[in-house]
Amino acid sequence: MDYSKTLRNNNKIYSRTSSRQNAMQCSSDFNIRFVLSGNESYQIGRRNLSIYPDSFLILNKGTHYASSVGSNDPAQSFSINFDQQFLNDFKNSHEQTDRSLLEGQGYLQRQEDEFNETIYPFKGDIRYNIFHLKSRLDNGLQDEMLINEYLHHCLINYYKIYNTEVLEKAGNLNFLNSSTRVEILRRLNMAKEFLYTNFNSNISLEDLAEHACLSVNHLLRTFKQAFKLTPHQFLVQLRLQRAQQLLKTTKYPINEVVSMVGFECPSSFIRLFRTHYKLTPLKYRMTA
């Protein structure tokens, strides 16, 4: 169901089904973008990122980007634009002590912080929150107090993911200098984005390292520190995850799914899938 909703506090919600390419745009607010079916490709500067139903993207206010549908099928997208005052109020209440807030010390004019514009996993509480909100909106929810509570919880859940995907992973890196950790993680996130976007291609370590502006051995060492997986293990897990989604939501033959997610051998795919999910792909499809 397609709609756009602007709340009285200028938070905005969009639900769209699209099969076209959009020209270069500028993000007017901090926003979170989800793809509930199909996939979308984004160009941000020199970076190309693809968003699938297992991931979401953050765009900061003022970011220039172009988007397009990355498949033959239309993509169903759902996005939330947060008004700056609502976002600042959330940051104050989230980061300040109750005493500071009661005394009014927390409500200071602040510069607009920028979040790490990268691909994040769409799972757990934030996934439940977004699907529940969309279901209520699809069924005619108009209560703005309740809608804003959903948006508040969306930010809470995003902060949790940001803490896990950015702050904790930066802390896992064995560098004393904090600015070095931040820069290495930025480059590792570029490698992660490359895997998310090109998971069904034949990716070499050299390609991945070049994209991240790291040497191969530096990439291998720091990627494992940050993500607790080697790049190859991360890629295999991602391919299995995408295969699981295709088995659940489409009728493509299993052999076709194998090639669509980048595996070359159906037998090795079946073995890996069974090891990871405790079911063969066929049994998973029958029970999904």
TrEMBL record:
> According to the lineage, what is the superkingdom?
Bacteria
* Domain named HTH araC/xylS-type: residues: 189-287
Alphabetic keyword roster = DNA-binding, Transcription, Transcription regulation
Entry-linked SMART domains = HTH_ARAC (SM00342)
**Entry annotated with the keyword Membrane:** no
Against Gene3D superfamilies, the record matches this protein to: Homeodomain-like (1.10.10.60)
- Report whether RNA-binding shows up as a keyword of the record: no
Task: Please give the Pfam families that the UniProt record associates with this protein.
Answer: HTH_18
This protein is called what? HTH araC/xylS-type domain-containing protein
The organism is Mucilaginibacter gynuensis
